[in-house]
């Protein structure tokens, strides 16, 4: 069974989970502990990050990202919590859930992107600053902010369709983000566009525990292999 703890997944903690999380912060950072207490009081989620090399199998690595300060600096608090103290895990937000939280200049274009994604039956969700603003009501977005999208194609045709939509809508929206392949390894979609024309080109793959370079051809083979195994078999 696939783990629910994928990068960018949303994780709500129990009271004991927040206590454990606070213990992972350095003692000298009392202000950081205050941030965690505020997160707990508002029942805001943490976000799954890349697993630390020494993280045990029964724990999960999480993060809390604060809104940028007046200078644009972003404080991120790395946490580690036992899985038994996790209250709830959810996938990143659907595009539809964040549309009410964007500026008017983005709203119509983002609604059209959502419509096109739905028409094609694609899996596209939102993470990063826009998702955090929608979840917490705090001011994460700046004039220079991107819209970070997670695109999960289940076939090479979906990959082609999704990349076409991202490139089309990037003409009106500051789109960024990742393609997530069936093993939950992710590639920047902009990097993929630059490299996908030759199977021997390599792209930077972000996995749950590390990063690696992989051939475009190998990633397409993985996608096609997954698609074949998802097809229903005819009864004998």
UniProtKB/TrEMBL annotation:
Source species taxonomy: Bacteria, Pseudomonadati, Pseudomonadota, Betaproteobacteria, Burkholderiales
Key word Nucleotidyltransferase present: yes
Transmembrane segments annotated in the record for this chain: none
Domain Phosphoribosyl-dephospho-CoA transferase MdcG C-terminal: 99-215
Domain Phosphoribosyl-dephospho-CoA transferase MdcG N-terminal intervals: 7-92
Top-level lineage group: Bacteria
Keywords (A to Z) from UniProt: Nucleotidyltransferase, Transferase
Nucleotidyltransferase in keyword set: yes
Pfam family, any one: MdcG
InterPro entries: Holo-ACP_synthase, MdcG_C, MdcG_N
Full protein name: Malonate decarboxylase holo-[acyl-carrier-protein] synthase
């Amino acid at each position: 069974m696939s783990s629910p703890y994928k990068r960018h997944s949303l994780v709500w903690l129990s009271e004991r989970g927040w206590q454990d999380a606070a213990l992972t912060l350095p003692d000298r950072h009392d202000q950081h502990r205050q941030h965690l207490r505020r997160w707990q009081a508002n029942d805001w989620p943490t976000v799954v990050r890349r697993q630390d090399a020494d993280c045990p199998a029964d724990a999960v690595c999480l993060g809390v990202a604060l809104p940028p300060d007046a200078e644009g600096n972003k404080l991120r608090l790395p946490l580690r919590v036992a899985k038994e103290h996790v209250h709830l895990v959810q996938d990143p937000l659907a595009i539809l859930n964040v549309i009410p939280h964007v500026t008017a200049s983005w709203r119509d274009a983002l609604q059209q992107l959502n419509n096109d994604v739905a028409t094609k039956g694609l899996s596209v969700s939102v993470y990063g600053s826009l998702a955090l603003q929608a979840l917490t009501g705090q001011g994460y977005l700046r004039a220079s902010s991107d819209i970070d999208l997670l695109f999960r194609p289940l076939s090479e045709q979906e990959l082609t369709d999704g990349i076409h939509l991202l490139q089309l809508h990037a003409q009106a929206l500051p789109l960024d983000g990742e393609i997530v392949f069936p093993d939950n390894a992710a590639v920047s979609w902009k990097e993929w566009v630059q490299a996908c024309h030759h199977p021997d080109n390599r792209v930077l793959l972000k996995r749950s525990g590390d990063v690696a370079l992989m051939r475009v051809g190998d990633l397409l083979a993985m996608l096609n292999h997954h698609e074949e195994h998802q097809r229903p078999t005819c009864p004998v």
